[in-house]
Specification:
The chain is an alpha/beta fold. The chain has two domains: 126 residues, Aspartate Aminotransferase, domain 1 (Alpha-Beta Complex), CATH 3.90.1150.10; 252 residues, Aspartate Aminotransferase, domain 2 (3-Layer(aba) Sandwich), CATH 3.40.640.10. 35% of the residues lie in helices and 14% in strands. The chain has eleven helices and 15 strands. The strands form four sheets. The protein has a seven-stranded mixed sheet, sandwiched between helices. Strands 11-12-15-14 form a four-stranded antiparallel sheet, with helices on one face. Strands 1-3 form a two-stranded antiparallel ribbon. Strand 5, helix 5 and strand 6 form a beta-alpha-beta unit. The radius of gyration is 22 Å and the shape is globular. The two termini are 20 Å apart. It binds pyridoxal-5'-phosphate and (2S)-2-amino-4-(2-amino-3-hydroxyphenyl)-4-oxobutanoic acid (3DJ). The site of pyridoxal-5'-phosphate has 12 residues, from helix 4 and helix 5. GO terms for molecular function: kynureninase activity; pyridoxal phosphate binding. Catalyzes the cleavage of L-kynurenine (L-Kyn) and L-3-hydroxykynurenine (L-3OHKyn) into anthranilic acid (AA) and 3-hydroxyanthranilic acid (3-OHAA), respectively. Its cofactor is pyridoxal 5'-phosphate. Homodimer.
Length: 407
C-alpha cells in the first residue's frame, strides 16, 4: 500500500483520541485496512495465549477437574458462561443475571422468540418484523411458525413503517437495531416504549450494536435481545452469542431448549427440569469452553472503555469517511445509503454502486477489506477500538484508486 500524506486535521483527531492506545491490544496485519469488524472482529493480542492456556493447562493438565477447579472464586469452567455474561451485560445495559452466553445468535433468536410468545398477551399471534431484517431472524421466525403448525403470522413491513404497525394484535416485535446492509440505526428506546404501550413484547437483535456503541436495554424497558460474540466483541470466528431476558420475565418465560446446563443443579441428575436462577436457564448444553475463553479474554479489552467515548469516536470515524467519500460520490456512481444523522447511524458506512461486487473484489486485492452485500452494497465497518482517522483516510484513498482504475 502506498504511503500517503495524511491531512493535519485528521492527525490532530488521532492525537487527541482517548481510545488510541486500544489499537495496541489487537493484532492487525500489515498492509491492510480492515473494515469488516462488523462481520468478524480483529484478533485481540491476549487471545492466542489465553487459548493456549485453556488448551494446554486447563484441558491438557487439569483435564476434567477444570470444570470445578476454582469454583469457590467463580473461576471454574462451569461458571465461564456467567463470567462472560457479566462482561457483556455492562455493554448492553443489563444486569449480569439477565444475560446468558452460548450457542449462536440464530439459536438464541429461537429461544427468545419462544420466551417472548410465552409472555405475550393471550390470543395475540403476530410477530412483527422489518421486511429487510437479517435473513436468520426471518428464517428462525418462519421455522418457529412451521413448528407451531402455521398458527403465527409473520408480518413483514419496511423498517420506516414499523411504528405505524405497532397495533394491538401484535404479540412480539423482532427488530435488528442496526441494519446490516445500510447501517441505519433504529431508535431502540422510542420503539420499545411505543411497543410496550401497545402491550407488545420486544425482541432486539444487537448483532451490529453490542460493542460498537452503548446500549441501554434496562433503561429502555426492552424485554428480550440477542447478539453476536464475533463482531464488535471480537470473540473470534464462531464465538458464542448472547441473549438477554429482562428479570421481570424470568419466572414466566418458557425455556424452549431446557437442557441440563440450564438446570438449577445439573449434577443432581434430577428427572425433571428445574430452571437455574436468572438467564442461566437459557444455557442449554455444555459450555463451549475454548471459544468462551477467547471471548472472555477479548471482552477484557472493553473493561476500562468509556462507552460514550466509544460512540463519539465511531461517529467521528464514520463522519470522516462520509466527508472524504463525498467528492468520489460526485464523480462515480456511488450512492450513500447510510443515514447522515448521528442518531440514525450505527458504526458502518454503505454505498450503492452498480458494480459493487467487482469494486469490493478490487478493494480487497488492494488491502482495503470491506464487504459486498447483495444486490449492490459496498459496506465499510468502523471499529472505534482499533481504527484511526488515518486508516479512514487510507481507505478513502484506496476507494478512489480502485474507482479511477476501473473508469
Ligand atoms: C443481524 C444479524 N443477526 C444474526 C447474525 C448471525 O447469526 P449467527 O451467529 O447465528 O450466524 C448476523 C450475522 O451473521 C446478523 O448480522
Ligand atoms: N457470521 C458470518 C459468517 O459465519 C461468515 C461470513 C459472514 C458472517 C457475518 O457475520 C455476516 C454478517 N452478519 C453481516 O452483517 O453481513
Amino acid at each position: 500500500m502506498t504511503t500517503l500524506t495524511i491531512p493535519d486535521h485528521l492527525l490532530a483527531l488521532d492525537a487527541r483520541d482517548p481510545l488510541a492506545h486500544k489499537r495496541g491490544a489487537f493484532h492487525l496485519p500489515r498492509g491492510v485496512v480492515y473494515l469488516d469488524g462488523n462481520s468478524l472482529g480483529a484478533l485481540p493480542r491476549g487471545v492466542p495465549e489465553r487459548l493456549a492456556r485453556a488448551a494446554q493447562t486447563e484441558w491438557g493438565e487439569a483435564l476434567i477437574r477444570s470444570w470445578t477447579a476454582g469454583a469457590d472464586a467463580g473461576q471454574d469452567w462451569m461458571a465461564l458462561p456467567d463470567r462472560v455474561a457479566a462482561k457483556i451485560a455492562r455493554l448492553i445495559g443489563a444486569r449480569p443475571h439477565e444475560v446468558a452466553v452460548g450457542d449462536s445468535t440464530s439459536v438464541n433468536t429461537f429461544k427468545v422468540l419462544v420466551a417472548a410468545l410465552g409472555v405475550a398477551q393471550p390470543g395475540r399471534r403476530v410477530i412483527l418484523t422489518d421486511a429487510d431484517n437479517f435473513p436468520t431472524d426471518l428464517y428462525v421466525a418462519q421455522g418457529l411458525n412451521a413448528l407451531l403448525g402455521g398458527t403465527l403470522e409473520l408480518r413483514r413491513v419496511p423498517a420506516d413503517d414499523i411504528e405505524a404497525h405497532l397495533t394491538e394484535d401484535v404479540a412480539a416485535l423482532l427488530l435488528t437495531q442496526v441494519d446490516y446492509r445500510t447501517g441505519r440505526k433504529l431508535d431502540l428506546e422510542a420503539i420499545t416504549a411505543q411497543a410496550r404501550a401497545q402491550g407488545i413484547v420486544t425482541v432486539w437483535d444487537l448483532a451490529h450494536s453490542a460493542g460498537a456503541f452503548p446500549v441501554d436495554l434496562s433503561g429502555a424497558g426492552a424485554d428480550f435481545a440477542v447478539g453476536c460474540g464475533y463482531k464488535f466483541l471480537n470473540g473470534g470466528p464462531g464465538a458464542p452469542a448472547f441473549l438477554y431476558a429482562a428479570e421481570r420475565h424470568h419466572a414466566a418465560a418458557p425455556v424452549a431448549i431446557s437442557g441440563w446446563m440450564g438446570h438449577a443443579d445439573p449434577f443432581e441428575m434430577a428427572r425433571d427440569f428445574t430452571p437455574a436462577p436468572g438467564a442461566r436457564r437459557f444455557v442449554a448444553g455444555t459450555p463451549m469452553v475454548l471459544s468462551l475463553s477467547a471471548l472472555d479474554e477479548a471482552l477484557d479489552v472493553f473493561a476500562d472503555v468509556d462507552l460514550d467515548a466509544l460512540r463519539a469516536k465511531s461517529l467521528s470515524l464514520t463522519d470522516t469517511f462520509i466527508d472524504l467519500m463525498e467528492p468520489l460520490a460526485a464523480r462515480f456512481p456511488l450512492t450513500l445509503v447510510t443515514p447522515r444523522e448521528h442518531a440514525r447511524r450505527g458504526s458502518q458506512v454503505s454505498y450503492r454502486h452498480p458494480q459493487a461486487r467487482e469494486v469490493m473484489t478490487d478493494l480487497i486485492q488492494a488491502g482495503i477489506i470491506g464487504d459486498y452485500r447483495t444486490p449492490d452494497i459496498l459496506r465499510f465497518g468502523f471499529t472505534p477500538l482499533y481504527h484511526s482517522h488515518a486508516d479512514v483516510w487510507q481507505a478513502a484513498r484506496g476507494v478512489q484508486a480502485v474507482l479511477e482504475a476501473r473508469a
